[in-house]
Structure formats: structure tokens, C-alpha cells
Amino acid sequence: MAGEPKKHEGGVSYHIPGSEYFEKRVLKRHAGVFSLWALGVGAVISGDFSGWNLGFAVGGWGGMFVGTVLIAVMYLGLTYSIAEMSPALPHTGGAYSFARTAFGPWGGFITGIAENIEYVLTPAVVVYFIGTYMTAITGTPDAWQPVWWLVGYLIFVGLNVRGVALSFGVTVVVTLIALAILVFFFVSALASGQFDFAKNAMNVGAGPDGAAIALPDGHGPFLPFGLRGIFAAMPFAVWLFLAIEQLPLASEESVDPKRDMPKGIMLGMFTLLATGFLILIINPALPDGSFAYGTSGEPILDGFRVIYGAGWAKVLALFAVAGLVASFHAIIFAYGRQIYSLSRAGYFPHFLSVTHGEHKTPNVALAAGSLLGFLVMVVIWFTQGGGAAGTYIGGTLLNMAVFGAMFSYLLQGLTFLQLRRRFPNIERPYRSPFGVPGAWLTVIIALITIAFQLTDPLYRQGIIGVAAWYALAIVYFGAYGRRTLVYSPEEEFAVKQREGTASI
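The structure assignment produced for this chain is given below.
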């Protein structure tokens, strides 16, 4: 970008490019409230199919239930805060652009990296669970799981590249299928005659060494691991809601983000509250119960096996995979836009934000994020012994994603508080009914969740990986990226607000 005019602000240098720069980085507007609702629910719905249930092994049913209540409170505070910030700052950057206005370029970058870790690793977790479902359905060897991952990435990155209308259309269809499967599962379980909550869901006790043990007759304690079990289960409860906050990344593809974004976010959140608590109550009340589901990679498939037998369960599981597919597809959308936004503004290399000439989708960003996620999976797979370490791999990836998410939520809560304090006169088409208390609850609960992630050796292994990711990103930005920023829409808005020259 030699020869372009420059601007300096907050320890960074901005290049002010000509119109041709942005002409190569154009997105199309398409989404209304229904599409945004489907994107939000679709991004999260896989959490009802796999991952959340691992919390039973560390908290029992009671610990998982109370942990889910606390995490739900955190997400309500977060989503209401985002519902206020997103129409006030309607840029594709989402959390990064909010933090950029509140805390300057370094604050925006640090928040953007946390979000990047979350969005690149979350689909890796989801496609891992797709692999476990497909392995169980088809009977292929565990060693073939990386093939399922690769096929998943190729298909759904391809669909995302083909255009925003197709991308949202696929999201709507698979999200509705996933919700229909959940409803069918709930009805089947309740009507099966095998639903026994006290015996099955309450069948976890604490052994002499503090580890979970099975109680054959159930009727165990509500909190077998005490208060610690609640906090230990919280990272897994996150999986019932994680990624609903991605919706602001679609702001520049929303027809009317100031009107539709708050509605889409909150309708999605209330849908997920309903499905999350229903799955938490109904799934473990089937035979084998919480103890068995605490180590399962496919809890709904296990439930269908109990209700319909192994043969029919495989058929139904093919439909159940739709829930995982919905999230996989929707979060691929998210990291494509997140990488695109940070690249367009110069925080990441500029070439990553070039969009497809015909479809106007961030195809380079989509490919780069997919390659990174797949490589992380393969490295963990082979260094930990492949299929023999399946549960470890899923847990490590899940907790790396959750740690990135928790740090992002902490920063977004602080961002909301800073925007309310420093920029009270920014136009806010929607105001959070939770307001400042809701943002503080988000910050506090996120900090508690992070603290308990750090106490478990399994979590700490993943966090080392996250720390390395952060270190490399900060070295890149400090040494090079901060000198190559671009005056993109969110950066211009932030600079003018901080200079006091924007219309407010």
C-alpha cells in the first residue's frame, strides 16, 4: 500500500486506500429476522446433540443443572448487551469492532483474537462429534475419523463460498430439521415407558477418590461433588449456548441490522434456553442415565438406541447429524466473516479479506480458517494416539474453544460497560433491559468459568495451545500488523467516536 495517505492513532498506523480496495471486499445484504434467528440457533444447536453431557462426569445431574442455570444467566446478560451494541455499531467485525471503539486498536485486536480462537475451534469440535456419529452409524474404523472431518470441511466450506443466499438457505433448512429431531426425541423419550428421572438421571455418586461412580438404583445426591461440581460442570453447560453471540458478524449482510439484529439474537437465545433445559432433563432420564452419558460422544444416538433399538437408531441418527451439521455450517459462516473483518481492517494479512468475484463471499478467509481448524485437529489426533484418545481429543478441543469464548465474553461485558460510560450519546436503537448489572454478571460468571477451567489438567493442556495462539498473534501484530491497518468502516467509526467528531 505504498503511496497511500496515512493516519496515526493510538500507536497504530492507518492506510487510507482508494475505492478499489473495498471493491474487492464486498458482501451482499440478504438476511432478515428469520434468517438471523436460524443462523443463531443453527450455530448452537449441535450443543444439544453432543458435548454438554460431559458435565455429568464432573458434576452429576445436579451440578450440571445448577451450572447450566448460571451459564444461562451469563448468556442472557451477554446477548442483551450484544443486542444493544450490534445495532449501535452495525459492522461485520462484531465483538472486535465493539471493543475497538471502547478500548482502542489493541483492545479490539485482543478481543478479536479471543473470538477467532472460539470460531475456528468450535467447528473443529462439532466436526469431531460428526465424525463420532458417522463412525457409529457406518461402522467405519476409528482411524478413519480424520476422513470424516475432511469431507465435512470440503462440503460446507464449499456451500458457504457459493453465496450468502445459499448459505442462509442451507442454515434455515438444517436448523429446522435439527429442531424437529429434538422435538421427536423429546416426545419419543417421554412416551417410551423408560423415562425414569430419579433412577436414571440421579445415578451418579462420588467414589472414595472423588471420581464419578455409577449408582445402579439411582436416587443419588443432587450434588454428588458438592459446590465444586457446579463450577466444574459450567464449561460444559456453555456448549448449550456457545456461538449465539456470532450474529453481529452478519451485520453487513443483514437487510436492516438496526431493526432485525436485536430481534434475531434474543429470539435465538430464548429458543436455545428451551431446547437446552429440555435436553438436560429428558436425555439422562433414559436407561444408563447420567453416568453413561457423562462419557458419551453421541448422547442422543444412545437415547435412540434405548428407545428404538440399534437398527432404527442408526436411521434416526442420520437425521440427528443434522443438528451437528447446522452448527458446523453456521459457525463456518461466522469465522469466515470474522477473519474477513479483521483482515479488511489490517489486523490480519490483507489478502484474507478478498471476496469471491461472483458470489461476494469471503472465500479466502473461509479456506484459511478451515485449514487452521483441521490442522489443529490432526495435530492433536496424532500426538495423542488417534482413536484411542477420542474422548481426550474431543474434551481438549471443546475446552480450547470454551476458553476462547469465555475470554471473549469477559471482554465483551467490559466493552459494554465502557461504551455506556464513555460514549453515552451514541445512538442506541435498542437498549438492554439488563443494562449494566447484566454486563457485570457476564463478566463475573465468565471469570468463574475460566478459573475452574484452569484447575483441571485436561483443560490446562488446551489452554497452553490457546496461549501459544495468542502469543503468535500478538507478536505478529506488535511487530508488523499495527503498521498496516486500514481505515475500514468500523475503524473509521471508532476513530471518529474517540476523537469526538462523529455525529452522536
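Interim note for the steering committee: The chain has one domain: 27-499. The CA atoms of residues 343 and 350 lie 5 Å apart.
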